[in-house]
């Protein structure tokens, strides 16, 4: 049996399913967040547990999907000067700054480690339930298959089938969480949670970005409404403060129930094994050989 | 439909060697699980690979997955039209949807992979 990390249980629970383990990490730059998430997946394999990392960004950052062209990001004057990091996961570009990232690492043998849609739906449905408990009528998008609804004037990923929107929050995939607020681009609802996965040999890493509020640090042309725009006065979660943390904790609790186990929240931040290669990962995620590979 | 095809646990298939070369693709199960494929990156011809090493990546609407070499050897050909016609993977995964051709270092490595019955048992036991 593999040793468990200090502070974690041995995985036994009343239901027979191991509790998920969640760490609340301090804000970090893009390279550090990506390297820690890769390490999270390695640890999920090593410990055979579902691991979660809740993180925010120490500066407004553009994260690209694994195969998006960096030239398109650099060509957008609206994004000039923003640091860019390429995620190992797929999906569209995200302007981080008013969102919180939920990174979920699931061993491939776990019931949610098979179909991509199942993990997507499990994580997203838990948020919809938590929002409903708070009086917010969120739902899951029916999607547009390979989707796309780039709004007028919004960047579109060139060379991709179906004129895919460049920004994640301009896209609609099946299971995205949407709320009933006009997004200002002709859509009757606004996407507040989108996710994308990296499917590794032993685990699935899913990045989910929950837009707590509109990112006022970026120009209107690339700004999307967030949860705080659902209610007049911005009362849904009031950004990343006590209200937002309470919302995410409720979401996590529901996610743990959906996965059949409890929830463990060790004190302190996520500290991966020395063998997880975090330092090397940070260097790699800062290099053009990774970030400009396409 | 290829006869005597073998499968890796990571869902790649490989044909028997003919003329020193075997053909590699991914199974219909893998294609269906990924859904809505949007991008594929192929390896360079001439690259030497070890069994289990990533030889490419494939992106669907929700996920990026690695493609793994089922055996060690040299990549001698890639299906360069495939990235522009990813629908072929779903239509004919064991035929026109082939991905690379590889010259195995040791053809006996292929025999050690799963036969069709064992692979079907594997996917039958997988979470959906």
Description:
The complex is a heterodimer of chains A (294) and B (128). Chain A is of the alpha/beta class and 294 residues long. Helices cover 24% and strands 19% of the residues of chain A. Chain A has one domain: 2-Layer Sandwich (BirA Bifunctional Protein, domain 2), CATH 3.30.930. In chain A, helix 2 links the parallel strand 3 and strand 4. Chain A is globular, with a radius of gyration of 18 Å. About 5% of the residues of chain A have low confidence. Chain B is α+β, with helices and mostly antiparallel strands. Chain B has a single domain, classed as Beta Barrel (OB fold (Dihydrolipoamide Acetyltransferase, E2P)), CATH 2.40.50.100. Helix content of chain B is 20%, strand content 32%. Chain B has 4 helices and 9 strands, in the order βββαβββββαβαα. A 6-stranded antiparallel beta sheet of chain B has the order 1-2-3-9-8-5. A 3-stranded antiparallel beta sheet of chain B has the order 4-6-7, with no helix packed on it. Classes of the chains: A alpha/beta (294), B alpha+beta (128). Chains A and B meet through helix 3 and strand 9 of A and strand 4, strand 6 and strand 7 of B. Strand 9 of chain A pairs parallel with strand 7 of chain B, so a sheet runs across the interface.
